[in-house]
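Before a colleague's protein record goes any further, I have to sign it off. What it holds is a sequence and that sequence's fold in token form. My question to you is simply how this chain folds and whether the tokens agree. Thanks in advance; the entry in question is below:
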Amino acid sequence: MFSLDKTLTVIKRELRDKLLSKSFVLMTLLLPVFMFGILGFQTFLLSQETDEGTTIEVICEGNELLNNIKESFQTRTFIKNGYYKISYSQKDRVKLESYLDEKKDEILSGNLTAVIFVPDSALLNKDVEYYSKNPNNRTVFDKLRDIINSALVKTYFKEKDFTKEEIEFAGMRVGFNTFRISSEEGVEEEGVGNMIASILFTFLLYFSLIFLGTMMMRAVIEEKTSKIVEVLLSSCSSKDLMTGKILGTGITGAAQMFIWLSPVIVVITTSVFTLPQDFNLKIDLGMIVYFLINYFIGLLTFLGLFASVGAIFDNDQDAQSGIWPVMMLIMIPFFIAITAQNNPDSALIQITSLLPFTSIIVMPARMTLVEIPILELLLAILINTATFIGIFILAGKIYRVGILRTGKKPTWSEVVKWFKYQY
């Protein structure tokens, strides 16, 4: 029979053990540092150009196109300062094949990075050919694409009586200045703030669910193998113990998540920090509250699953075979939520934001990118709550049998039979 007093006692024990543990303090303080460090390191790596000394030979079929490509290249700073070394020649396709044979050793040795062939047909379809031992050098493609396109546009429109300015305009890329239309705020310019917030929420959920879930599983295994659980069960029922452990760890996780989000709360509720204009963060306190509620329900759900895995097995090594299905329930929604950056209104994102397990991670990512009807948000909460209740009932049946079972590793068919036991 369920006892509230005994459950509260277990909750207090879990809070005392976890809130004051070194792992909790270190994780709370170091995870934000780790995440921003990773982002900073990635930004640093992306800013480091490692293509200095690139040597490229540009070959054109037509002389006029070759001259325009020369002119376009010579206006670029990285060509003027010798960062890239470009040579030019005119050859048709027949001569190209024999020429590539001549240059094969230079290309393979790295003395010649690539040969770019611009056929006359490129004036119609803009397809050029890139010959190199590394045909996937996106850095080179990004630097040269617009230059070659400018020369193609200039050559194509030369006989069509356009001014230089009109030709330059024809070669320009289209830029999108985005504006968000919402029911409350009207029309506002969109920045990168919400996209960064979506990624931040996704990573926080992913790391927290895995970290606390794994910690729960190992704690259950440790109590089981050290026989501490037998002492605990002498003063409370298995249901009281499991409920207290899940709620205690859930409260710990909620407190940890609140600490992680406190800088965001300060930014959106005060004027202490001024964000860059292009950042333009459109998040209110209601979103933060929803995120924390959604996270708490999702955390309790996964803690029940991880506690079940810990109760089934006697050691971490055996538990690895049972933890992967649970891990997949976290990893798959994580990758789906990352793709929400491309189109948060896609059918995949809309459906998974309302499915059990996936909505825990996908819905927070989606709600920061587009306005979502309040009914959908409430529906997601109801679905997650129903999922938690179902998992809690099933986890309770596994926990009460597995927590006292030692010795031979049970088969999954045996675990299924535990659901039928009556106590």
Remarks:
- Residues 4-35+192-418 form one domain.
- The radius of gyration is 30 Å.
- The chain has two domains: 4-35+192-418, 54-170.
- The chain is about 65% helix and 5% strand.
